[in-house]
Amino acid sequence: MGKNENLIINGSGSYPGGNYDKVSIRGEGTIVNAVDCSVFNVYGTSEAVENATVGSLKIIGEAEFKENVEADQTLVMGTMKVDGKALLKKVKILGILEAGERLSGDEATIKGSIAVNGDVEYETFDSSGGFEIKGLLTAETIKVSLRFGESSAEEIGGGKITVKRKKNSLLPFGKEIGFLTAKVIEGDDIYLENTKADIVRGKMVKIGPGCQIGLVEYTNELTHDPSATIKTKTQL
Asked: Looking at residue 209, what is its pLDDT?
């Protein structure tokens, strides 16, 4: 089967995997074998039982991948669940993404929410939504805009880490409730707001308003907002 064939599912049923140019699911479809395709679009409900390798992945409806998935470009506007590892090189989440093992790639933009049971590793990680990461979040550049709810990671590591409160334009008079929690935050250049952490470690560290930090270890410079709480400060 060459990659010039398409798999178009409008009704419901189970279909073989293999190599396709385009997979489009508008009904309810299960792909029972490993699938490799240039385009994978889900407007209905889909389940991929084995590994999936995709060029362009777009989820408008609901998609569940029982094993691993690898995609060059990913847009999630609905719900995507990966039981195994998700290697999503360039990903934009407007809906919900759940990953059972780990999530990795080059560039992540989170406007919806992600929940990952393992580690998350990217070159750039930009979140203005919410995240729950049971392992380590690591990226060269991490930018977090806290709009609502609580985002959390076991540990956060990166080169430049920026965490800022962001006013919710829909609720201009609403109380700011966006918050970040982590056990350890470690980077070269760190700026934090509305963050609760046991340990913050870096070269240039700036602790902004709304922070509760147990220990700050810094090598070059530490500045902090008068309203921030820091139990212990140590220059290394």
From this structure: 95
**In angstroms, how far is the first alpha carbon of the chain from the final one?**
61
Does 110 share its domain with 141? no
Same domain, 1 and 105: yes
Total domains present in the chain: 2
For 172, counting Cβ atoms within 10 Å of its Cβ (0-12 exposed, 13-18 middle, 19+ buried), the class is: exposed
Instruction: Quickly state the pLDDT bin for 177 (edges 50, 70, 90).
Output: confident
The answer, yes or no, to whether residue 1 has pLDDT greater than 50, is no
Residue 175 reports pLDDT greater than 70: no
Strand-pairing partners, residue 36, are 19, 53
Last residue of a domain, one of 85, 118, 151: 118
* Structural domain of 52: 1-118
> What type of residue sits at position 216?
V
Rounded to whole angstroms, how far apart are CA atoms 183 and 189? Answer: 18
| Cβ atoms within 10 Å, residue 231 | 10
34 and 142 co-located in one domain: no
- Pure H helices in the chain: none
